[in-house]
């Protein structure tokens, strides 16, 4: 990747991180729009795969997303550039808030602003879920649909811990991959 693209990657991830409120899941939609729709650096299916990797890895999803996208686009240099750009805004904001903690803690206007942001975050997370589900439905892959619906039922209705579901899905993915590789070699 050229120096110009690394600079673009830096400022894109800096911008996404600076204007993403509500945690890492919100950044998923914005990363997709930026890197798939706007720059055309990654295709839709590949972005879904990268997001799945970022979500299943331990740590903050925004940083994990920056790692996988940065690596895909520019290798180790892409990781360094995108991770630094992703952590700068929260670092600056947290530093400022910790410095002015007493003022923020008792300010009713700040509390109301944060409450309003919670509603917006809920809407963005719903949009992410809808877009990811639409991608699975669009593929018309019965196996993926079954996994998605089963995971929802197990977590929502049966209160199964998400860690177990992720582990089971990893095992299913590994088995499916090894079976598929065995069929391709034959």
From TrEMBL:
MF GO annotations: chromate transmembrane transporter activity
A GO CC term attached to the entry: plasma membrane
UniProt xrefs under InterPro entries: CHR_Transporter, Chromate_transpt
Entry keywords, A to Z: Cell membrane, Membrane, Transmembrane, Transmembrane helix
Compartments in which it is found: Cell membrane
Predominant localisation class: membrane
Entry keyword annotation includes Transmembrane helix: yes
Keyword check for Transmembrane helix: yes
Membrane topology: Multi-pass membrane protein
Origin: domain of life: Bacteria
Sequence intervals crossing the membrane: 6-28, 76-101, 108-130, 142-175
Pfam families: Chromate_transp
Family: Belongs to the chromate ion transporter (CHR) (TC 2.A.51) family.
The protein's name in its UniProt record: Chromate transporter
Biological source species: Massilimicrobiota timonensis
Organism phylogeny: Bacteria, Bacillati, Bacillota, Erysipelotrichia, Erysipelotrichales
